[in-house]
């Protein structure tokens, strides 16, 4: 796959760059709790600014659904952005029109401005050509540095690439190069681990995945929906019972494709969603009581998964195996992560993981650096893992 990079830019002094970044930062009580996405965008922003471009940053924040929502204004993250960049950043409460062109007039070459939350405008998610045109009117070129938003064909993630000279930013470039290197032609057998909580949004991925991988390891909340579909009583567990039909169809598709599906046969349960609860116990999946919740995969089931992993050469992982934020429900995730890391270090496994919580879990297990590659993206990583073309990436292709 070939795409334009920042190296292909000529002299940009005084030119206006629209740079799509991912500043969708986790916040609690009005404070940014995690800023790695800003740090990921720093090389691109500073490179352009240092070359004398006027940098206009575009990003979405939350899901305001096409309306101005005060607590989803990007003005809330500006101090974090300034601190990490070590530069002054002008906030512009619009994304197109006169206010933006005035801001461009005020900015010195090398100046940086953050435009308002793109999702305040309904045309963003609709990829409205009029909005695309209006945003593009204030700029000379477009840089996409938000791989994590590249699975959406929105105005600022896809549309702009068609109307302005378009380039991949440094973070986008690194992500694409690493994923291609690890998984362009994956060495078989390939295992996928899919867990976590976003069951409905991940079922679609599984449908595609079963035709591409040899082993599908299902854990986390995801497993409960599959167990329930197979007639297991999962008690009070996180479970989307209405998706039983979809889950069954996925299991059938896996059968037809020769993909071995691993569902936990042993689980760790509790009556309350709390750390080290008194009601904690490990049992067979068929022994979960009506008032219990499955919160992790049991230790012998993890051993069986480890044996399966040892036969594999490539691993893609999204979603923790249990409620890893609370002890001892991190045990299965930590154990499996350490096995994958050890196999990677031995050179027998190429391991790639992605997803916000997955990456946090791998850090918690102390093995994030031992994986072959870790992607910061969640949804985009999953779609990439399925082998789907990401519209935001496709639009950058030469
Ligand atoms: P990612 O961000 O890596 O894509 P998700 O957001 O889908 O992952 O899921 C992560 C969340 O899933 C974590 O907060 C974890 O506590 C939760 N989770 C995992 N297993 C269970 C379970 N059995 N029951 C409830 N929550 C679970
Ligand atoms: Mg998550």
Structure notes:
The chain has 398 residues and is an alpha/beta fold. The protein has two domains: 6-171, 3-Layer(aba) Sandwich (Rossmann fold), CATH 3.40.50; 186-385, Phosphoglycerate kinase, N-terminal domain (Rossmann fold, 3-Layer(aba) Sandwich). It is built from 15 helices and 17 strands. It has helices spanning 36-50, 78-85, 98-106, 122-126, 129-136, 155-163, 170-183, 199-209, 220-229, 244-257, 299-310, 331-346, 356-364, 379-386, 391-394; strands at 16-20, 27-28, 31-32, 54-58, 89-92, 112-115, 141-144, 166-168, 190-194, 215-218, 260-262, 266-270, 281-284, 293-297, 314-318, 350-354, 373-375. The strands form four sheets. A six-stranded parallel sheet has the order 5-6-4-1-7-8, sandwiched between helices. It has a six-stranded parallel sheet with strand order 11-10-9-15-16-17, with helices on both faces. A three-stranded antiparallel sheet has the order 13-12-14. Helix 8 packs parallel to helix 14, helix 9 (220-229) packs across helix 10 and helix 11 (299-310) runs parallel beside helix 12 (331-346). The longest helix has 16 residues, at 331-346. Magnesium ion is lined by residues 355-357, 378.
């Amino acid at each position: 796959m070939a795409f334009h990079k920042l190296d292909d830019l000529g002299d940009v002094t005084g030119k206006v760059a629209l740079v799509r970044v991912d500043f969708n930062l986790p916040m609690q009580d009005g404070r940014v709790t995690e800023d790695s996405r800003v740090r990921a965008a720093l090389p691109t922003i500073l490179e352009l600014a240092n070359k004398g471009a006027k940098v206009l940053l575009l990003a979405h924040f939350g899901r305001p659904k096409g309306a101005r929502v005060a607590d989803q204004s990007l003005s809330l993250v500006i101090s974090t952005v300034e601190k990490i960049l070590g530069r002054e950043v002008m906030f512009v409460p619009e994304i197109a029109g006169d206010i933006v062109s005035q801001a461009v007039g005020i900015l010195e070459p090398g100046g940086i401005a953050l435009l308002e939350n793109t999702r305040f405008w309904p045309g963003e998610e609709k990829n409205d050509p009029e909005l695309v045109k209006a945003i593009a009117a204030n700029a000379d070129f477009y840089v996409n540095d938000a791989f994590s938003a590249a699975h959406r064909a929105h105005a600022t993630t896809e549309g702009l690439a068609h109307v302005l000279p378009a380039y991949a930013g440094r973070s986008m470039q690194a992500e694409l190069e690493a994923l291609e290197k690890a998984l362009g032609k994956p060495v078989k057998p390939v295992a996928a681990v899919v867990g976590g909580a976003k069951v409905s949004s991940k079922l679609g991925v599984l449908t595609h995945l079963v035709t591409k991988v040899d082993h599908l390891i299902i854990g986390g909340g995801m497993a409960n929906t599959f167990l329930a579909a197979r007639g297991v009583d999962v008690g009070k567990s996180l479970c989307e019972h209405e998706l039983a039909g979809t889950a069954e169809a996925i299991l059938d598709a896996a059968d037809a494709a020769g993909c071995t599906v691993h569902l936990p046969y042993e689980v760790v349960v509790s009556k309350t969603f709390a750390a080290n609860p008194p009601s904690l116990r490990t049992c067979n999946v068929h022994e979960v009581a009506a008032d219990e919740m499955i919160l992790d995969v049991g230790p012998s089931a993890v051993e069986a998964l480890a044996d399966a992993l040892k036969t594999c050469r490539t691993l893609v992982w999204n979603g923790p195996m249990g409620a890893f934020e609370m002890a001892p429900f991190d045990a299965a995730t930590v154990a499996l992560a350490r096995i994958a890391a050890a196999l990677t270090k031995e050179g027998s496994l190429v391991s790639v993981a992605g997803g916000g919580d997955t990456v946090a879990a791998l850090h918690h297990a102390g093995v994030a650096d031992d994986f072959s590659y870790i992607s910061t993206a969640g949804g985009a990583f999953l779609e990439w893992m399925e082998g789907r073309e990401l519209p935001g990436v496709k639009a950058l292709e030469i």
